[in-house]
């Protein structure tokens, strides 16, 4: 084995890189070390598995370990890389058979991120979850599913069927943490839940848990839900959650989870709210500790610093995905926004670069979408004025509400768009959108515009599609551009 | 009255310009001459009025004549401008009280377009329609509505109610052509229809007429429906129309409509198909004859030539909307693509320019969307290779079908994207999309990309939104870019 491509981490970035290299250069040895048992899973799908809209954990796997092997990739699960020696070009690996060294020709660090739970005392109680691993999702769904529904009844058409005979069989993948799942399956299902954190995980889980008829209390320290999406989205989503009987408590910090072995209550400065399930979604941090003490540098965010090709500060060492920084399309500065497309795209580009075709990993705009019951939300770029000022801009914003279709066409829905621009240059810096009719997908228009460095007047003049069933003459995005344009010094 | 702004034509372009100028410069006199009775109506909504999804013709009015007057605009309906004298800066007008001259300070020609029907012999028979005027839409709906449904029953919740008491009252606007409507209302409703032309009017009307349980035969001379949308869209739409029992006959030229007074049949080279309604949707032509014999020049398309501010070749004379050429975003050359947003945008910009703030009218990309039953279709830019070569490009295209959402998320639908690029530079030239799940609105991403001169590799690297309910990790647009990128000489 000569010049192998070694990948640390078997999820989106790692397996995209491994697959792309293997496709372009089948002769090259590719080894992926994954410390856990799960590979290539759709983390963004977990709330919908917990909710019950996705039948099987298996559905969330993009690639099974067998499919990875079929691509000629040497996948080693339950192998943790515990050290990187860039001088020798080796990694130190701990597997079931002990510790060993492995040389690499090129190395990709794709170790992902982990959910933060530590600041919440009691996060280790039974009944407290983060939703950042497949095992946790499996255990949570087992906990939520009443025994009567788990043996074939309420679980959709059962997917592959076969092993669908009892509550413990819900997570129908052989390498799930069965002990944990069975423990939760044996417990009385919860009737009330606290969600700690009102970011996208919190909002998606509010919908998921409500589907199980739980009383859901959502605690959010900031004054708004989804703060990254701007005030207008946060307000709309809070109202929508309330409409669906979620008890939304913004501006409320959770001090701790109370209970002896099991979660019994959430404690805030003012109150003790009894719950028997707690879901902590207060953020994630990069898994970047592996590079400490090596010449591979971390950036200001704590994630691994990379250049436009995903290269780290060490020769022939790349980093990608949730553990790596990327360049932001608006600021041009390194930033850390862990999202699925970014990981896939960067991994694929690095695979290509390692194969001999230098391919930029692309920039990030922080484009994201989230569903909150019937509301579709999107955001991109820089919306927040503090953040814009830090980046050297003089921000100006407008928020407008306009129809999603021609007013006379059935189904037209209010769509609220916020745009932020730089006052002097008119450059579009960011935007958000919320509404019930095809709202989220419209954020891609704004993402494309800001990655193309369009100004607001240029955005206003875009020749977008008009057809009564899909968009009014002036799409809400264009209406917002018109209004914001009027606020700019050189207003047309 | 000094230095008046005179507008010829009271629809989208004309009234947008008039309104914008009046808002910016309330002191300026603004006169709009409209030869008909209708102003500011949503032509794109007519198929949905005929279908019955839109209750009232009134719903299609963006502005009533009264609302126009409230803006301080001197609107003269039933006044036709029959001559323009640019040397004297006057127009010659024919109104009910005779012919008169009127001076202008600035002039806007916004005379629109007309539906072509002449090439089809028999287009003047009773029962033959084009769907390019409100009176025609009113007459057609009266014809389609059985007497039993017209007095309050099957017509939705009746909109304004009031005058909803009989079949002739369906078109509830006082200045509708009542004689024509009543004539059709008195006739036996049709049971079968021929649609001549398979462009967007033909496709929308196939859906509209099917809703009235007619046997619908659609005749299209080219081999594909919606030729401007490319082959993939055309094929999908033809299959969908067939699924809905529309008899689709592509590659079939209609020789004439047969009948003595009323339409009785459609005659092709091979066949005579009995029908009692014919809808002709074979295209439109600009109403530009008014400028012949003046220094105001027409372009190669026959529409009025304009510059980036909508100025014609005569001093202080502008043209906008369906009668005017615009610059194409991809070719940089003058082109004629009569669409609603273009008219509104150009009119508004001209109003601003006349008010003293020079404002570009913007470019056109030919972005359009159309609904064909459950299919949502979009197109932008240059898809056709012959057209691309004429413009000096070396075109290469790919068509891919990908999911609209994560595969595991309910409701994911096949979405087919075609992209055309220039082989050497990789520049995106155009694209189309078709699918049932939020497909059409995705065309705006492509429109924004090509108006920003993005290359296909740049498109592939865009940071678009990913959330399982709305888009897979790689949106269909990105999948298409990836595949097309692989065909480019400098493929990454």
TrEMBL record, chains A, B:
Keyword Flavoprotein: yes
Pfam families on file: Pyr_redox_2 (PF07992), Pyr_redox_dim (PF02852)
Molecular function in Gene Ontology: oxidoreductase activity
Domain FAD/NAD(P)-binding: 5-330
Keyword Transmembrane helix applies: no
Biased composition (Acidic residues): 152-163
Family matches, as InterPro entries: FAD-bd_OxRdtase, FAD/NAD-bd_sf, FAD/NAD-binding_dom, FAD/NAD-linked_Rdtase_dimer_sf, Pyr_nucl-diS_OxRdtase_dimer
Cofactor(s) of this protein: FAD
Chain spans, region Disordered: 145-170
Keyword list, A-Z: FAD, Flavoprotein, Oxidoreductase, Redox-active center
Pyridine nucleotide-disulphide oxidoreductase dimerisation domain residues: 371-472
Family: Belongs to the class-III pyridine nucleotide-disulfide oxidoreductase family.
Protein name: NADPH-dependent 2,4-dienoyl-CoA reductase, sulfur reductase
């Amino acid at each position: 084995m000569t010049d192998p491509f070694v990948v640390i981490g078997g999820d989106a970035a790692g397996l995209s890189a491994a697959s792309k290299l293997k496709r372009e250069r089948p002769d090259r040895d590719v080894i992926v070390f994954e410390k856990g048992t799960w590979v290539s899973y759709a983390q963004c799908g977990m709330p919908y598995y917990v909710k019950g809209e996705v039948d099987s954990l298996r559905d969330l796997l993009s690639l099974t370990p067998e499919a990875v092997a079929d691509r000629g990739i040497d996948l080693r699960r339950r192998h943790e890389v515990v050290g990187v020696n860039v001088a020798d070009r080796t990694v130190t690996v701990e597997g079931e058979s002990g510790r060993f060294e492995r040389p690499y020709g090129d190395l990709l660090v794709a170790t992902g991120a982990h959910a933060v739970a530590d600041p919440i005392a009691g996060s280790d109680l039974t009944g407290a979850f983060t939703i950042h691993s497949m095992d946790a999702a499996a255990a949570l769904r087992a906990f939520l599913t009443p025994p009567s529904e788990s043996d074939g009844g309420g679980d959709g058409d059962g997917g592959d069927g076969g092993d669908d005979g009892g509550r413990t069989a819900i997570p129908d993948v052989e390498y799930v943490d069965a002990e944990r799942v069975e423990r939760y399956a044996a417990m009385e299902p919860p009737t009330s839940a606290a969600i700690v954190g009102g970011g996208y995980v919190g909002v998606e889980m509010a919908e998921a848990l409500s589907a199980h008829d739980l009383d859901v209390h959502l605690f959010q320290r900031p004054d708004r839900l989804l703060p990254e999406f701007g005030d207008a989205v946060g307000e709309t989503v809070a109202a929508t959650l309330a409409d669906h009987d979620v008890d939304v408590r913004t501006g409320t910090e959770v001090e701790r989870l109370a209970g002896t072995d099991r979660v019994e209550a959430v404690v805030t400065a003012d109150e003790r709210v009894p719950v028997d399930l707690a879901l902590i979604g207060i953020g994630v941090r990069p898994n970047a500790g592996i590079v400490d003490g090596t010449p591979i540098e971390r950036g200001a965010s704590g994630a691994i610093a990379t250049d436009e090709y995903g290269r780290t500060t060490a020769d022939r060492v790349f980093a990608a995905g949730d553990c790596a920084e990327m360049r932001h399309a608006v600021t041009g500065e390194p930033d850390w926004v862990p999202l699925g497309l970014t990981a896939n795209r960067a991994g694929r580009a690095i695979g290509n670069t390692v194969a001999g075709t230098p391919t930029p990993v692309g920039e990030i705009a922080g484009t994201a979408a989230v569903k909150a019951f019937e509301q579709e939300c999107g955001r991109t770029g820089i919306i927040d004025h503090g953040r814009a000022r830090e980046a050297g801009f003089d921000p100006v914003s407008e928020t407008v509400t306009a129809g999603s279709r021609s007013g006379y066409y059935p189904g037209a829905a209010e769509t609220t768009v916020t745009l932020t621009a730089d006052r002097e240059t008119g450059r579009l810096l960011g935007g958000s959108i919320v509404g019930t009719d095809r709202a989220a997908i419209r954020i891609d228009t704004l993402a494309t515009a800001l990655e193309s460095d369009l100004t607001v007047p240029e955005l206003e003049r875009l020749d977008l599609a008009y057809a009564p069933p899909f968009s009014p003459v002036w799409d809400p995005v264009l209406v917002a551009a018109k209004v914001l344009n009027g606020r700019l010094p050189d207003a047309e």
